[in-house]
Amino acid sequence: MADDVLSQGEIDALLSALSSGEMDADELRADETENKKIRVYDFKRALRFSKDQIRGLTRIHENFARLLTSFFSGHLRSYVSIQVASVDQVPYEEFIRSVPSKTILNVFSADPLEGRLLFEVNPNIAYAILDRMLGGSGSSLNKVETLTEIETKIMSRTFGSAMESLEEAWESMVSIDVEMEDFEVNPQFLQIVSPNETVIVISLNTVIGESSGMMNICIPHILLEPIISKLSVHYWMENQAHKGNEEDYHLLQENLSKVSVDVKTNLGETSVTIEDFLHLQTDDVIKLDQSIHKPLKLYVDEEPKFYVHPGKKNNHLAVQVFSDMEEENDG
């Protein structure tokens, strides 16, 4: 059946033809069945992520690309541009075949999530970074097969630090602790998941100085499975709104906590005549309306709020709050 949207006139004409008998509904269904498009489904390329979830991952790693750009710009003191080129779901075997036979491969864990993720850096980019770290101009030189121990150590530390930006980018979705587990140059020696396992591959188009190349993040489905529901844009928007409300609440609470109010407690009240008041003498007793067996009231800005008991603390007169007047009245 065609995907074109019918106009109101075409819909009216179709209904008129059906009601007058010019067109048979059964024939229409038969034509629709014959014209149905058949889509080939490859079970080796199982699509486990929806388009909405792919968009969520794209948004997260666009933020990661910006953070990574800032990180390398500060460390290398050179022009750096990193942008998300694509986000795809492919079998792990297909991803391994797509990277160079000799490349820079960093394997990371992402506690508390199960599984490992892979950060692949094209040798042109890796050596441009290494050259700048060692004081050079940032020229690329592909000698990945003859990496020295010092070069390996510098690269692994640099990319390990760079992945802290991934923790920050994922913070809106889940808190993770990224730790480097392995450093390798031959992709055939790495088997983080089975060959047919679906993985998300985020490709980053990278320019450092005059060198350019790709960096790829490979995330297995098994690692994302516990948080897959959080990848949707709808969840993210709700989470951001809740986070904004929570921040506003804490800010309001913090500001209110600094406001000063007047607090006082009356021991009791009574009324006397002017004549009695004028004739008061030492040791005279004035009877108050407050029984010693009943609690006193604590006033906050002239409003009664709490029931208290009088006493002393550090030789100072004090009161002890034991109940809220509003709660007691509600009860």
UniProtKB/TrEMBL annotation:
UniProt-annotated location(s): Bacterial flagellum basal body; Cell membrane
Superkingdom, natural source: Bacteria
GO biological process, one term: positive chemotaxis
Membrane topology: Peripheral membrane protein
SUPFAM superfamilies: CheC-like (SSF103039), Surface presentation of antigens (SPOA) (SSF101801)
Residue ranges of domain Flagellar motor switch protein FliN-like C-terminal in the record: 255-321
Coiled-coil region(s): none
GO CC, any one term: plasma membrane
Gene Ontology terms, MF aspect: cytoskeletal motor activity
Pfam families reported in the protein's UniProt record: FliM (PF02154), FliMN_C (PF01052)
Alphabetic keyword roster: Bacterial flagellum, Cell membrane, Cell projection, Chemotaxis, Cilium, Flagellar rotation, Flagellum, Membrane
InterPro entries: CheC-like_sf, Flag_FliM, FliN-like_C, SpoA-like_sf
Family matches, as PANTHER family: FLAGELLAR MOTOR SWITCH PROTEIN FLIM, YOP PROTEINS TRANSLOCATION PROTEIN Q
Family label: Belongs to the FliM family.
Protein name: Flagellar motor switch protein FliM
Gene responsible for this protein: fliM
